[in-house]
Design a protein that fits this description.
The structure holds 2 protein chains of 2 kinds. By secondary structure, chain A is α/β, with parallel strands linked by helices. Chain A has 2 domains: about 300 residues, Rossmann fold (3-Layer(aba) Sandwich), CATH 3.40.50; about 90 residues, no CATH class. In chain A, the strands form 2 sheets. In chain A, strands 2-1-3-4-5 form a 5-stranded parallel sheet, sandwiched between helices. In chain A, strands 7-6-8-9-10 form a 5-stranded mixed sheet, covered by helices on one side. The longest helix of chain A has 28 residues. Chain B is an all-alpha fold. Among the domains of chain B are: about 170 residues, no CATH class; about 150 residues, no CATH class. Chain B is built from 19 helices and no strands. The radius of gyration of chain B is 24 Å and the shape is globular. In chain B, about 40% of the residues are buried. The chains are: A alpha/beta, B mainly alpha. Chains A and B meet through α1, α8 and α9 of A and α19 of B.
């Protein structure tokens, strides 16, 4: 080979390398950041995680890993994905196992009756998978997730679209490159989640009607969901990872209840534990949901998280890592998480959401009520009683010259620092709907 | 298979690598197989038509060489009739039947004409014309008939220019297909830069302009006046970038394989008259019509009237070649008319220039001529772009009856038609780049050559920068349905 040919080859290689580096930078820059935000703390931790939580948005909103750390020293991560059917959850788990080997895998079994593999809309899949670097596992995930649906669908155009969509999972620049006109500061400076994959939704929703069916009525079909749940359990058992199946609470209609009933059989078949929260009375649907569907708000999530913390500590050999040097940065992470919670309280102006957020055993609150009208409202009474169930956490004081109707002081019971002092003025009329209390003024 | 598709990005490097690995004697066979695969990706059945056209023109070439003078005419006529019949059947059957029905209805005769569901084979107008040019060249004894059937089949089906041109001449392409090819880095780099330029024109410019034009033309009753004027101006640029982009990618693709295709565009919007425009626009088609229709009709040799008549015939046929619809006929006719009127008014224009003491060689005069030419050509594009002739007439009415010049200044209205202000700014930069490139081309400066002359670090960074810009600002990927190159329908 002559000198010129060698020069040419080197020149081509350098150009290709420069191009790859530039495209890598652009890919990272243009990526929608939800996935990075969710997974950054997972990828940046070198130490193993002891517990991983898998499932749908029910998991995202119901289990707070930082609370498990604070109360039980459990090192965990929330891998719940919006609308993920179990096949998607399976592949999220497989990808996660490339980076850590937990002692316990907690799997929510919602969507067991589903036959589809992909979440809808497909952008949810991007949130679940974008951050995982390209690997053989990711290639298998994309290949598997898009296979069955493609075979079942006769529409050529839809198949083509799905084929292209699978490319976007392997190289997401192919879908995000058009974001050049919407880049903001957050695209250049990533702000990772402080909740270790979980998401607090500070709202209160009126849930759907709660139905109840007999525990004998079960899902009998061998759905894709069942198949992939079994695969998840088998894979975990092969890797000596214990499995805990759960069915998180929500006002379930008939089919989800049939799903939850079927999981008893699967748990028995594989000899794993199962907690069916639908059969338990932990959640108050009047105060603990943020929408009608119904996902849990922080009040509900803290109840579920606490129950799970106790259950895991009791039934599995999960170490308390709070005193371990290797996990000291979790204390710093908790401080950030606590500051995030406190900020949420400070930034809340709606009285009902404020009361919901006070349902946190880490905070003490002193509530002085100057206007007894609030106690005639069932909704607010439920929220007041939810702060410390079984205890009366408020004082009724009658002051004619009071400059507000309710005054609240919140303190952190670990540091005794005052987090927030706030007073609310309300407007209520006897002839109006009892729920129509309107906050007219908030003073801090 | 489209050039701007993932399939092509896999297909082409594979073809190139194998092409330069295998021995020279097999290269054309490999390209032939690749070309048929390329075509069959769209519809395998229609490759039979391509083969049929190839066989007819190949056989006619051989026969023309052996036949006597009398039978030569019959052979060339037969070749033309068979090929034109296929083209006519697939492209014009419904149009002719519809026209017949319309003509009879003028005389109150109800004609029950069925409409056939005929799928137009991609690129049929291009490869039919290319094959027929070969027959004519052999008939005129300008070339010898090709004896190797497979090499001839490759001439008709060569994938870079199979579905949208340029319509190559046998004199140029057949000879090159017979020559041995070795990998030439400088040539391949030049071809790659051409492809980048083509992709820039297609996916950054044409496809983005289409967002605005489609919105406005799709609802011209709502978007009247200046919306339509801006959309029509932009459509002139869109169709140029779309077709020029395809041609440039075709040239670049062929060049990497060591084959030079003819230039199809030469800065047409810098032309100073409509005749000049047609010398620089879709050169391969214009020159085809000149050589195989205009000159055989007598060209300008039989007096002024025949010259104008011949010109009109050529442009009407050219219109119909672009599509089987009255709107294309009007578009072609209008372009013919511009040139005839232009020539007729030439003395008067000369007198006016002298009277006003204008200097024809001045830059300002050339700008005036260029702008006027653009306005005339762009006006004719309305017929090309509108869905039907009736729509075109309504669009013209809407354009001139709705008064809304404030949309140019209110900072909002224009940005609500598929392109926001950032996209518009990007478009201005890109159109400026295109204008700069065309000016350089007209002055004989080849930008690719200038880039190649620069130091290695500049060349590396330029290629990286160009690829990143095209990928970032181009319209591609799953959110985007790969819009077909406009010229595929012809």
């Amino acid at each position: 080979m002559n000198k010129n040919a060698i020069k040419t080859i080197i020149s081509c290689i350098i150009t290709i390398c420069l191009l790859i580096i530039s495209l890598k930078y652009l890919t990272d820059l243009f990526e929608r950041k939800q996935s990075n935000t969710k997974y950054e703390p997972f990828f940046s931790q070198e130490e193993e995680f002891d517990v991983l939580f898998m499932g749908t948005s029910h998991v995202i909103n119901a289990i707070f890993p930082m609370e498990l750390w604070k109360d039980y020293g459990i090192v965990s991560y929330n891998f719940g994905g919006h609308a993920n059917p179990l096949p998607t959850t399976y592949w999220v788990m497989k990808n996660a196992l490339d980076y850590t080997t937990p002692k316990l895998m907690v799997i929510d079994c919602y969507h067991l009756s589903y036959n589809q593999k992909l979440p809808s809309p497909l952008s949810y899949l991007h949130i679940s998978l974008d951050s995982f670097p390209l690997s053989s596992t990711k290639l298998c995930a994309v290949s598997d997730l898009f296979t069955d649906d493609r075979e079942k669908n006769d529409e050529k155009d839809i198949n083509k679209e799905k084929g292209e969509s699978s490319l976007t999972l392997l190289w997401d620049y192919s879908i995000y490159h058009s974001r050049w006109d919407e880049l903001t500061e957050s695209d250049f400076e990533l702000s990772p989640t402080v909740e270790k994959g979980a998401e607090s939704r500070d709202s209160i929703g009126i849930p759907n009607e709660v139905l109840s069916i007999s525990s004998d009525v079960k899902l009998t079909d061998e759905t894709t969901g069942v198949k992939y749940l079994c695969k998840m359990i088998e894979d975990c058992q092969q890797h000596n990872i214990e499995v805990l199946l759960i069915y998180l609470p929500f006002p379930a209609s008939e089919v989800p209840q049939m799903e939850a009933n079927r999981v008893y059989d699967i748990a028995e078949e594989y000899d794993v534990h199962y907690i069916n929260f639908l059969d338990m009375d932990i959640i108050d649907y009047n105060t603990d949901c943020y929408d009608s569907n119904s996902h849990l708000n922080p009040s509900g999530a803290r109840k579920i998280t606490d129950y799970l913390g106790q259950y895991i500590t009791r039934n599995y050999d999960i170490p308390d890592r709070r005193m371990e040097v290797a996990y000291q940065d979790w204390h710093d992470a908790y401080k950030k998480y606590n500051a995030f919670k406190q900020n949420n309280i400070r930034n809340t102006e709606a009285l009902d959401i404020y009361l919901m957020l006070l349902a946190d055993k880490n905070y003490d609150s002193t509530i002085e009520i100057y206007n007894p009208a609030i106690l005639q409202n069932v909704y607010y009474v439920q929220l007041l009683n939810n702060i410390r169930p079984g205890e009366e956490c408020y004082t009724v004081l009658f002051k004619e010259d009071a400059d507000c109707d309710i005054r609240i002081t919140v303190t952190d019971n670990n540091t005794n620092e005052t987090i927030d002092e706030v007073s609310f003025s309300i407007q209520t009329q006897a002839d109006m709907d009892p729920n129509s209390i309107v906050v007219t003024e908030v003073n801090r | 298979m489209l050039f701007n598709s993932l399939h092509f990005l896999i297909f082409f490097p594979f073809v190139v690598i194998i092409y330069f690995i295998i021995p020279n004697r097999l290269k054309y066979l490999w390209l032939l197989a690749a070309s048929y695969f390329f075509y069959m990706c769209w519809n395998p059945k229609y490759a039979v038509l391509l083969l049929f056209s190839t066989v007819i023109t190949y056989a006619s070439g051989l026969l023309l060489e052996r036949a006597g003078e009398k039978s030569r005419k019959w052979i060339v006529a037969l070749s033309f009739i068979l090929n034109i019949f296929i083209l006519f059947y697939f492209k014009y059957t419904n149009f002719m039947l519809g026209s017949l029905k319309h003509i009879f209805s003028l005389f109150y005769v109800e004609l029950n004409v069925p409409t056939y569901d005929i799928v137009l084979p991609v690129g049929i107008s291009f490869y039919t014309f290319q094959a027929l040019s070969y027959t004519m060249d052999v008939y005129r004894k300008e070339i010898y008939a090709e004896k190797n059937f497979f090499r001839y089949a490759l001439f008709v089906s060569f994938f870079p220019q199979l579905v949208a041109g340029p319509i190559e001449r046998s004199k140029n392409l057949l000879r090159q297909l017979a020559e041995p090819k070795h990998f030439d880095f400088a040539l391949a780099r030049d071809g790659f830069l051409l492809m980048l330029w083509g992709f820039f024109l297609k996916i950054v410019l044409a496809d983005r302009i289409a967002l605005f034009v489609d919105t406005v033309y799709g609802d011209y009753e709502t978007y009247g006046g200046w919306f339509l004027i801006i959309a029509t101006m932009l459509f002139g640029i869109q169709i140029y970038c779309d077709f020029y982009g395809y041609s440039v990618i075709a040239m670049g693709t062929a060049q990497i394989l060591g084959i030079h295709l003819m230039e199809n565009f030469n800065a047409p919007y810098l032309s100073v008259s409509v005749s000049d425009f047609w010398r620089n626009w879709h050169i391969s088609l214009t020159s085809w019509f000149r050589d195989y229709l205009y000159i055989p009709l007598g060209g300008s040799r039989k007096g002024r009237f025949r010259k104008y008549l011949n010109k009109m015939i050529v442009f009407l046929v050219s219109g119909l070649w672009h599509g089987a619809a009255y709107k294309f006929l009007i578009w072609g006719g209008l372009n013919g008319l511009y040139q005839i009127v232009g020539e007729l008014l030439q003395p008067a224009r000369e007198r006016l220039v002298a009277l006003l003491h204008l200097h024809k060689k001045n830059f300002s005069h050339k700008i005036l001529q260029t702008v006027c030419t653009f306005i005339f050509v762009d006006f004719s594009w309305i017929f090309f772009r509108a869905a039907t002739l009736r729509d075109a007439l309504r669009i013209i009415r809407q354009m001139f009856t709705v008064k809304n010049p404030w949309i140019l200044f209110d900072g909002a209205s224009l940005y609500d038609c598929g392109l926001n202000i950032k996209y518009f700014n990007l478009l201005f930069i890109c159109i400026g780049t295109l204008l700069f490139a065309d000016c350089c081309k007209q002055k004989g400066i080849q930008i690719r050559r200038e880039i190649a002359k620069q130091d290695y670090w500049f060349r590396w960074l330029f290629i990286v920068f160009a690829v990143c810009c095209i990928l970032t600002f181009g319209i591609w990927g799953p959110e985007y349905t790969e819009s077909n190159f406009l010229y595929f329908q012809f």
